[in-house]
Amino acid sequence: MQEFTADLKHRMRGVWRDAELVDPNTHNNKLATNHSWFAIPFSRNERMPINVPRYLHLDLSKHVMRNVSKFRLRAHTLRVEAAAWLEDGSCVCDQCPGEDEHVQNEVHALLICQDHRVRELRKHFSFLFTPFFEDFPPAVQPFLLQQVNNQLVHNFLSQQNN
Amino acid sequence: MRGHALADRPHTSLWLAKTYVIPPGMYGSQVWGTGFLQAGRELSSPLSTLHLHFWNGTLGVKQSTTNWAVLRECGHEPLQFYWFRSAVNSMLNTNSDTLRRVVQTDLNLQPRSSACWTAQLLSASGTAWV
Questions:
Q1: Average pLDDT of the residues of chain A
Q2: Which among B10, B69, B92 has the least Cβ separation from residue A73?
Q3: Chain B interface mutation, best of A12, A61, A63, highest count of B Cβ atoms under 10 Å
Q4: A27 Cβ contact partners less than 8 Å away, ≥ 6 residues apart
Q5: Mind telling me how many Å the CA of A83 is from chain B's nearest CA?
């Protein structure tokens, strides 16, 4: 029976194995985004239950908790999601002052966007960024110029600092 | 929920749901749940819709949020997982002679009818383990 349960779990996790093959930087796929950047990895032992993200255990206000959930599950209004119902249907960031056209997704908002408000936020919370991104001097250039690999993004988003 | 402000503590809701929502959601599923056990039908039953509605409300996200991601965020398996396990468990580990005979009769019926629950269970498991 235990083997059957493990097999059943394995079958149900097929959607995540498919998502693993998709790169969220190049494809607008919600499952792939969640799996690569946000979700807690499954235990190798398939009998183990799925772990719940740490923020759900923290003493945060309901408003903050909901915003974190929305951000992690792509239920937000960044352009990558809003493009589906916007008239122009464009995913390109409308906040970046430069000529470059970047897709406005979660990683863009956190690390790459050059809008002055998020730059100020990154400066203010520079201690969260510097351990992970060496070429990220918050005082001089609080943004990255290129995409970072998915594992680094996952590590950054999974850091435990509170 | 309101008296203890549990709505502000989603991890408590997650544990309470595991204790109080899953068992009623499995009641009699050995009989009525076999139609929902096929791969690809994990989230297609009305109960699964209610289950996901509850999680979306707990997390405070819109109802159109990706179902699989919501379940994983909440650390839960789809209800189908519990139904499947319960159906197989009741078939293999029953100590009721009557139920054993019913299963045997249903198994004999299975080559002629795809609507009987043994046929649905076999079709869902994809293997001839009975």
A1: 87
A2: B69
A3: A12
A4: none
A5: 15
Q: Residue B130 above 60 pLDDT?
A: no
> Where does A8-155 show beta strands of DSSP type E?
none
Q: What residues form DSSP beta bridges with A92?
A: A103
Q: DSSP assignment, residue A34?
A: I
Q: Do A12 and B42 touch (CB under 8 A)?
A: yes
Residue type, A152: L
pLDDT surpassing 50 at residue B129: no
What is the token pair recorded at A13? 């996790």
Whether A9 and A46 have beta carbons less than 8 Å apart is answered as: yes
CA atoms within 13 A on the CB side of B130: 22
Name chain B contacts of A5, Cβ cutoff 8 Å. 85
Mapped onto helix, strand or coil, the DSSP state of residue B56 is helix
What residues of chain B lie within 8 A of the CB of A49, using their CB? 75
Phi first, then psi: what are they for A92, rounded to 5°?
Answer: -70, 140
pLDDT bracket for residue B127 (50, 70, 90): very low
Q: Mind listing the pLDDT tens digit for each residue in A106-158?
A: 999 999 898 989 989 998 888 888 888 876 776 677 888 777 889 999 999 99
- Taking an 8 Å cut-off on Cβ atoms, the answer to whether B60 and A12 are in contact is no
Computed over every residue of chain B, the mean pLDDT equals 86
Q: Which residues of A touch B72 (CB under 8 A)?
A: 16, 34, 39-40, 50
Interface A–B counts its CB contacts (< 8 A) at 84
| Rounded distance between C-alpha atoms, residue B11 and residue A53, angstroms | 10
Q: Which residues of B touch A50 (CB under 8 A)?
A: 72, 75-77
Phi/psi of residue A103, nearest 5 degrees: -70, 130
* CA–CA distance, B80 with B73 (Å, rounded to integer): 17
ipTM of the assembly? 0.89
At A25, which amino acid appears? N
